[in-house]
Amino acid sequence: xxVTLALERxxxxxRQDLTSRASIMPRLPGVExxxxxxxxxxxxxxxxxxxxxxxxxxxxxSVFGQIGVRLQTILGGNITLLTELCERTREDAFSRAVExxxxxxxxxxxxxxxxxxxxxxxxxxxxxxxxxxxIAPRIRAGES
Length: 144
Known about the structure:
alpha+beta, Translation Initiation Factor IF3, elongated, single chain, 42% helix, 4-stranded mixed β-sheet
């Protein structure tokens, strides 16, 4: 058997292994979906990469919220109304990114990042994005 044929046979076996592993892969022990800001998850192999997914939320403050913010600004200190709005908006953007990843068949979202842009005065967009992947526990010790 020539080297080229042997390499092609090996590639074919690897593709078959990854395909069968993705379809019969056991669930992650105790974890339904994993997320991280890192570029990978230690102890897991990437079975399939689905690409970039995102969650976008556009929010504005209400007139009453703006009045409350102005009062808190005058008093100084932590502006709790904006803190709560920002936290809720980031949480919603994150949830949408995870939903997008799950819809593709992913069980992990890695390299998660956030970006925020003011579209109009008082109107902001928050974007959460990352790479959706199907991962499986590493079978062979010592491999990376």
